[in-house]
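Shapes recur. Our protein:

. . .
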Amino acid sequence: MKKVFLYVVVFVVFSCGEKEQKPADILDETEMISLLIDIREAEGMVASITINKDSSAILFKALEQRIFEKAQVDTAIYQKSYNYYLLRPEKFMEITSVVIDSLKVRQQYLTTGRRSTN
């Protein structure tokens, strides 16, 4: 019982602390969502092509590099941002949810020509 109480106290102390400031070199959520959508689309595109695994990895890296160049984002900044959000599960799940929903809407539009009415 003492351990449970101690865990609860520690949890409350840490959860009531000051809000953490996001470092300046971390992509904001909107930028991260946009990049992840583009990256997931590139993954899907490469997966739909019947080429060997080595060639598909090379193709994906080239597409990924093009995505970063278009967004004017350095791969190191992307990786640092990805890790930052990954260590904050609530934010990461929010971002992931938006990415999945956006991809579903795009897929529906491509297959039916109409947007979702939800």
About this structure: DSSP finds five helices and no strands in the chain. The first helix runs from residue 2 to 15. The radius of gyration is 19 Å. Residues 25-112 form one domain.
